[in-house]
């Protein structure tokens, strides 16, 4: 597992570190079950938006089901990663993320601790201050969605 820290920049909160589990789940057919077993629910399957965005009401796990993508984490000055099948990102509430490039078959599954509801924030005027208040009320997840260990404590 790798850990990435990003600075709060007045547009993207980036409060807690991102956890990156490369090649974490070899059998991607079971990825949803792995996440559910650690209480990450309310899942969906799709891609990653091609613009910087974040969620202020929930943490998010993204697991790559197929294909490859270049993503940027932490906003425009953040880190670029190459994601592939089996990779998992754990994004704390407020962490900016964006898809830069992808293969035609790129697909991720997303889920949230305790099945929490999520919103989508960008860089719109007035969102940042409200997002900071929202993030303050997001409870820390009990378990890492891959290992089941405690995280961010």
TrEMBL record:
List the PANTHER family hit by this protein, alphabetically.
BLR7373 PROTEIN, CUPIN TYPE-1 DOMAIN-CONTAINING PROTEIN
Pfam family membership, one:
Cupin_2
This protein is called Uncharacterized protein YjlB
CDD domains given in the database record: cupin_YjlB-like
- Source organism per UniProt: Terribacillus aidingensis
The cross-references to InterPro entries, in alphabetical order and at most eight, read: Cupin_2, RmlC-like_jellyroll, RmlC_Cupin_sf, UCP019307_cupin, YjiB-like
What SUPFAM superfamilies does this protein's entry cite? RmlC-like cupins
Cupin type-2 domain residues are 52-98
């Amino acid at each position: 597992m790798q850990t990435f820290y990003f600075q709060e920049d007045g547009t993207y909160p980036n409060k807690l570190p991102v956890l990156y589990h490369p090649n974490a789940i070899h059998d991607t057919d079971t990825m949803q079950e792995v996440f559910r077993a650690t209480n990450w629910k309310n899942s969906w399957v799709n891609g990653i938006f091609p613009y910087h965005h974040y969620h202020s009401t929930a943490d998010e796990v993204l697991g790559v089901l197929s294909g490859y993508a270049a993503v940027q984490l932490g906003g425009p000055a953040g880190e670029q990663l190459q994601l592939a099948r089996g990779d998992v990102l754990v994004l704390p509430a407020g962490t900016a993320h964006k898809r830069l490039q992808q293969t035609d078959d790129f697909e991720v599954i997303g889920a949230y601790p305790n099945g929490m509801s999520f919103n989508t924030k960008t860089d719109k005027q007035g969102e940042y201050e409200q997002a900071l208040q929202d993030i303050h009320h997001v409870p820390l997840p009990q378990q890492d969605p891959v290992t089941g260990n405690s995280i961010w404590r």
